[in-house]
Give the backbone structure.
Amino acid sequence: MPERDIIVIGASAGGVEALMAVVRGVPHDLPAALFVVLHVPPDGESMLPRILTHAGPLPATHARDGEPIAHGRIYVAPPDYHLLVERDRVRVVHGPRENRYRPAVDPLFRTERDEIICRADYAKG
């Protein structure tokens, strides 16, 4: 199983300033990827990747389903899609709403938890 480190962050619609502060504080050579879920309306355009790119040293983009996870990048959940982790890939899925939201941070937390458990089991042999 490939080694990769991920930082998972979730915020409600009012959390943009807090996300900007977090991104501002990360080093340009961060040896991890950031996954960000923000509650946004399903039919609107999300400016969050542009905002986060300008706020700190790492490039931010809306995640694309199936793309490999890379260190030093910020993956943002696109409107109306959940952002997930599956092995060494990003998953973007239009699953059911959770707690009235899509994207929601719960599915991301669950998939990352499952990946951590899988990595631990793999390491044990």
